[in-house]
Amino acid sequence: MQIHEVKTLEGNSGCKVQLYRTERSVFVRKTSSCPAYNERLEEQCRKQNFHQSSAGVCSPSVLTWGYDEGLFYFDMEYVPGHSLADLVPVMKTYDIAPLIDLLFKMLHWNEKGKRSDSAMIFHSKIISLEKTIAGKVPDEAFALLKRFDWSAVSWTPCHGDLTLDNMIYTRDGKVCLIDFLDSFCDSWMIDLSKLLQDMELHWSFRDRHISSDTALRLQIARDMIIDHLAAMENGDEKIKTVYHLLLLNVLRIWPYAKAQKNDTWLKTATEKAIELVKHI
Known about the structure:
9 helices, alpha+beta, five-stranded antiparallel sheet, Aminoglycoside 3'-phosphotransferase, Chain: A, domain 2, 2 domains
């Protein structure tokens, strides 16, 4: 069977993502950027392969996987559609609430996954990160994270990088999750913090013009997420945890920021994330 490359797709992980076609089908191949990244991409493949689809949410089926010249790759079905980041500017405001409800139904927030070593794991991650980017960000950012009690984090299955760019609205009206990400901690709270990274800090829109209407839609979505969290048991505690994760997410981007456009976004986003944590 002959395989033909159609084009290279954009991605943020550094992995090579290509669209291929055969006589009978079209599929996407994701290939590790280097041998050192193989283990991480294998974990991302496992996450995607074992994701449980629900009524309105799915993920591309993993077709096959293996190694090519020492680099891990996996093939998945191609799902045509538009990212939610592309659709937000033209979305009707009354469509936002059903979408947020759908995303909350997908989360594993009702699982009581706590770990006795959670605080130690987060403290170790924060210290390691501080050594890596010391001097680039305000010391206050690390002080806030070190003081926080991370024992309330729920360890559950999660996507790992649930941004609007990684959700595709398909032709049959489903939300398809792509680009699953491995992490030092798996938690539905991280998924929500990644959503707030878009709603509050506009990560998925850093290369797009944001009109006042788009900003308003993102604010409405943000308010709905907070309302959902506030209605949960220990809602205030969960909100604080998610916002501290938001700040940690932003700091974790710093070591990988090579383009000037990301550096500019990061400086502004870090300052805003610090203020958000201080005032929740």
